[in-house]
Specification:
The complex is a heterodimer of chains A (338) and B (326). In chain A, strands 3-2-4-5-7-6-12 form a seven-stranded mixed beta sheet, sandwiched between helices. Chain A has a five-stranded mixed beta sheet with strand order 9-11-10-13-14, with helices on both faces. Chain A is built from twelve helices and 14 strands. With 338 residues, chain A is an alpha/beta fold. Chain A has two domains: 3-193, Thiamin diphosphate (ThDP)-binding fold, Pyr/PP domains (Rossmann fold, 3-Layer(aba) Sandwich); 207-335, Rossmann fold (3-Layer(aba) Sandwich). In chain A, 36% of the residues lie in helices and 18% in strands. Chain B has 326 residues and is an alpha/beta fold. Chain B has one domain (3-312): Thiamin diphosphate (ThDP)-binding fold, Pyr/PP domains (Rossmann fold). Helix content of chain B is 45%, strand content 10%. Chain B has twelve helices and seven strands. In chain B, the strands form two sheets. A five-stranded parallel beta sheet of chain B has the order 1-2-3-7-6, sandwiched between helices. In chain B, strands 4-5 form a two-stranded antiparallel ribbon. In chain B, helix 6 (155-167) links the parallel strand 2 (143-148) and strand 3. The longest helix of chain B has 27 residues, at 3-29. The radius of gyration of chain B is 19 Å and the shape is globular. The chains are: A alpha/beta (338), B alpha/beta (326).
């Protein structure tokens, strides 16, 4: 099976869906780059992270729209185009920029269907790059999926690997509801096996990446690979864990988490968002409620501190939860047994 | 009857329907039977109807919090609207939207919007869809963004106008300058005091019209439509108008001189102006308009009676229509 980076897997999904459905359009800042300017090079970037490369030459400027730096207009235009029958994929570049266009996302896109009594469909996909670890500072590094998970009417996708990213994006484009699609910047170059033919990954179905009996570990996006490292290290001491990647935070596959918890009785949640009102807190509440009788130890949440993302690599390393912190948390929930 | 005659009668019927719909709501809201708060369009009828006169169901409009007039002008069913405003099960949006969120996708009415300035980006998106699909239809479709003088100070509207020019899409921005952004004068809140020039500065054709003059609005809109349908990109129209009521029902309107509205009703009533104009031209007989007046009052009365008698939404509707599939 071909090895593709997550960047190329997403790019392939966009190509395949635009090929399949003429209603799919892509719009955003620099999605091709080079509109205007003096070099004459028309596709100058193909997206700031290169994710939309090749779309303009293949599908033309009517379907691959370079926009001004106008986030509200980008999301609003994508929403209006979706109401009018297209299936737009809007790129917001950095997830941090949702602040500029939050009204269009949470008051418009998310509410149309309910507010209009079920008569509208707004099949828009909003892609955005998230995550710390690259020295991009406080306004270009956040993992703000919790904020949007909290909004009824949105579906929220947080892939952890190239193969899932392709299938989830194709699912997102074909989905009739609005979908927010988070891409962790550190995962863009990471390669994995990705089938060439188009396929979908259903929302609300977690993947079980490791199976074990001692602890249930739930991790999202980049934290999945860190959890894998921690779990593989613990296996040397005979400790085994279930590792669950929810893949979508809305809908959330509660059943897979609760079933695993029933077997292990111990839960560690790893989340790159700040701890307050986070997806980790949400899953901890699930365990404290419906999973209460399964619990043998307090739930551990491994998250950054409640601070903005710092710039200095020394501080940023301390901010992002790593394999050691995850391993320690797993040991703590096991220690509570004794 | 000539085509122009029937189109004039239709325009008058729509304007009169909007007027009586709003006048009746003004009375009914005082009874406390209508939930929430309502922004009446009375006084501005010639703008909505003049703008929508030559649109089809295939053309889109995006409306505002003061949207009843736009809905009626675009052909929304008034009983469905009235039921929606009363929060009833069979309202146009099943009672989940209310006065500020009426939409009717079959009529190309993409929704009233309670966030000032949120609509124009949506209209640009619909215009992108119109442009992409041009060629299939004989005539290009267009997308209209209604907004007020208040919305023209929102950054989203600037973004939308610029994007429409950059992408050269068939969008038409209609600014209904009724003189007040909520309780604050447009002569204060619009820094340059010139909405038309502001729109023109984005690089599109823009013109100011007397919003109480149906014929002037329709003519300006025809110029914008022709431009849009020929692939000439966006336009803007500033319609100078007044509202006969407050920002919302219950607004004490202390920002307006005591006799302001009475004077405007006497001098700026678009229905009177329309009657005078057609009487002078002889285009339509006054008796025909009188007959429309009677018919409209009956229809409004029937809509109110239907809304009052209509069932409320069942509690089971609370959790439906959040998603299509979840």
């Amino acid at each position: 099976m071909p090895q593709l980076s997550m960047r190329d897997a997403i790019n392939q999904a966009l190509h395949q869906e635009m090929e399949r459905d003429p209603r799919v359009i892509v719009l955003g800042e620099d999605v091709s780059g080079g509109a205007g300017g003096t070099s004459g090079e028309r596709e100058a970037s193909g997206g700031i992270f290169g994710v939309t490369k090749g779309l303009l030459p293949r599908f033309g400027a009517e379907r691959v729209l370079d926009t001004p730096i106008s986030e509200s207009a980008i999301i609003g235009a994508a929403a209006g185009a979706a109401l009018a029958g297209l299936r737009p994929v809007a790129e917001l570049m950095f997830a941090d920029f949702v602040g500029v266009c939050m009204d269009q996302i949470y008051n418009q896109v998310a509410k149309f269907r309910y507010m209009f009594g079920g008569k509208s469909r707004c099949p828009v996909v909003i892609r955005m790059a998230m995550g710390a670890g690259m020295g991009m500072g406080a306004q270009h590094s956040q993992s703000i999926y919790a904020m949007l998970t909290a909004v009824p009417g949105l579906k929220v996708v947080v892939p952890s690997n190239a193969r899932d990213a392709k299938g989830l994006l194709i699912e997102a484009i074909r989905d009739d509801d609005p979908v927010v699609f988070f891409e962790h910047k550190a995962l863009y170059p990471r390669k994995g096996e990705v089938p060439e033919a188009p396929y979908t990954v259903r929302f609300g179905e977690a993947s079980l990446l490791r199976e074990g009996t001692d602890v249930t570990v739930v991790a999202l996006a980049r934290m999945v690979s860190f959890a894998e490292k921690a779990i593989d290290a613990l296996a040397r001491d005979g400790i085994t864990c279930d590792l669950i990647d929810p893949r979508t935070t809305s809908p959330l596959d509660e059943e897979t988490i609760l079933e695993s918890l029933e077997g292990t009785g111990r839960l560690v949640i790893v989340d790159e968002s700040p701890p307050r009102c986070s997806v980790a807190a949400d899953i901890a509440a699930l365990a404290a409620g419906r999973g209460f009788h399964s619990l043998k130890a307090p739930v551990e949440q491994v998250t950054p501190p409640h601070t903005p993302v710092p710039f200095s690599p020394a501080l940023e390393r301390a901010y992002v939860p790593g394999p050691q912190r995850i391993e320690a948390a797993i040991r703590r929930v096991l220690g509570a047994k004794a | 009857m000539s085509r122009e005659q029937s189109s004039l009668l239709d325009a008058y019927r729509r304007m009169k329907t909007i007027r009586e719909f709003e006048e009746r709501l003004h009375v009914e809201i005082a009874t406390g039977e209508i939930p929430g708060f309502t922004h009446l369009y009375a006084g501005q009828e010639a703008v909505a109807v003049g703008v929508c006169a030559d649109l089809t169901d295939e053309d889109y409009i995006v409306s505002t919090h003061r949207g009843h007039g736009h809905c009626i002008a675009k052909g929304c069913d008034i009983t469905g609207m009235m039921q929606e405003i009363y929060g009833r099960r069979d309202g146009l949006c099943k009672g989940k939207g209310g006065s500020m969120h009426i939409a009717d996708f079959d009529k190309g009415m993409l929704g009233a919007n309670a966030i000032v300035g949120a609509g124009p980006p949506l209209a640009v998106g619909a215009a992108i869809a119109c442009k992409l699909r041009r060629g299939a239809a004989a005539e290009g479709r267009v997308s209209v963004a209604f907004g007020g003088d208040g919305s023209c100070n929102q950054g989203t509207v600037f973004e939308a106008m610029n994007l429409a020019v950059v992408l050269a899409v068939p969008a038409i921005f209609v600014f209904e300058n009724n003189g007040y952004s909520e309780h604050t004068g447009a002569d204060y809140a619009v820094g340059s005091k010139d909405i038309t020039a502001r729109a023109a500065a984005f690089g599109m054709a823009a013109e100011r019209v007397d919003g109480a003059d149906f014929f002037a609005v329709r003519a300006a809109m025809r110029r914008a439509l022709e431009r849009a349908r020929a692939g000439g990109g966006p336009s803007a129209i500033e319609a100078v108008i007044t509202r006969f009521y407050g920002h919302f029902e219950g607004d004490p309107q202390k920002y307006r001189a005591r006799d302001e509205v009475a004077n405007q009703r006497a001098t700026m009533d678009c229905l009177t102006r329309f009657r005078t104009s057609v009487a002078q031209s002889g285009a339509v007989a006054g008796e025909e308009l009188d007959a429309i007046d009677r018919e409209v009052l009956e229809r409004i009365d029937a809509a109110v009676r239907a809304a009052r008698a209509a069932p409320l939404p069942p509690e089971s509707d609370l959790t439906t229509d959040v998603y299509i599939h979840y």
